[in-house]
Amino acid sequence: MTSLRVRIGVLGIALFAGALAPTSAHATAAAPAPTVEEQRLDKAVPREILRRSGFDDVAPEFTRALGGAHSYAQARRIVVREGSALWRRAVDRAQGRGPAESRRREALPYKGGGGRRVGLSRDDDRPLYWARLGMTREVRTWEPGFGVSDTQRGALLDVLERTSRGQTDLRWPGGHMKRILVTGFDPFTLDRDIRISNPSGASALALDGTVLQTDEGPARVETAVFPVRWDDFAQGTVERTLRPYLPKVDLFTTVSQGRVGRFDVERTNGAWRGGYPDNENLSRTGTVPVADPASQPQWTTTTLPYAAITAADTGRFPVYDHTEVTEIPAGGTDPVVRADGPTAGSTARAGGGGNYLSNEIAYRATLLRDRLGLHDTLPGGHVHTPVLEFGAGNTTEVTDPDFVQNRVDIIDQVRAIVTVAADASFRN
Questions:
Q1: Is residue 73 exposed (0-12), middle (13-18) or buried (19+ Cβ within 10 Å)?
Q2: Which residues have a Cβ under 8 Å from the Cβ of 272 and sit 6 or more positions away?
Q3: Cα–Cα dist 369/376, whole Å
Q4: Residues 6 or more apart from 139 whose CB is under 8 A from it?
Q5: Counting Cβ atoms within 10 Å, is residue 28 exposed (0-12), middle (13-18) or buried (19+)?
Q6: pLDDT (tens digit, 9 = 90+) per residue, 78-95?
Q7: What is the model's pTM?
């Protein structure tokens, strides 16, 4: 039997240990499971894309670096450094700097087109997407000896998302050079076809830091990429990224993938979420959630020079001034499609860009423009690119010559559209 003195001593040690334990606000939490997006990393196509691009070293190197952290502060510095490096590496690859692809691609030929071997071209946005997910999965499942709280882990994931998307790398030089801001998106609908690439994200990589020659002189383009996730938008990722810069730029456009075989300049954006599943397979339906909803309009409009853009010869695909919306008319109950935009007092059910996240980024960016008092002075809006299609008969391979050419043509036309928009806007 244990003596009373021993038992009291044990109790004292337990109480002392309890006093030193972290409080609930800072307690170490068990690492959460990987997300739906991160779980797709284990499929064959993402692994092949990472191998053939050479980006298969990103997550392992990040894991080693993070494993060497001895404190939360050190871990945060590593995350900032490695997230920023991933964005710069993807931009450099897209713009012809650094190696184009892994030397190991020779073992992974494209089986179509008469047996031709095709690697992953520099314009490919998918290595950035899948490499980022490898990094976020590591942070999400990381369990360091010094422990991290849920709040700290969330902060690391947040800074990793922002740095690896170029959202913290928006910098324009001083002087009289014009400033243009362009945004793109991650690949999406990956459960339909996991091979998908998003030409808006590819355009962002190709244009970041480049200088366009406009009729009024040079203009520098800075870009960022956004996730295809409803909840990130509800948490204000668009506004947090764009708010510091919209008062300082001369033109902006959000860009996303839209319809087959055409570009659209979306005239009107609606304050409605249609619920289509995002990259986490989550659906959200209802009014777009923004700050100060009492002053929230049902519709916002583009201030891009759509007439000049649609009149110009910018490339292979036709470009339309897209005016159609879906509304519930004032006093009505059923949705109605309007070819020429919304009627007075109506409630939004779809903007020109639909009611998915492409419409929502357009709505949020143009609402922010208006709330900053810039509607009459800042050209800005949304451009939908054509759907990026694989070559005929390719249902399994991650790339083919037609796929590459389609993406290159879309990127070139995005660049031309932005240049025309700048020419028309800066002359006025």
A1: exposed
A2: 286, 287, 288, 347, 348, 349, 350, 351, 355, 359
A3: 9
A4: 66, 79, 153, 156, 157, 160
A5: middle
A6: 999 999 999 999 999 999
A7: 0.90
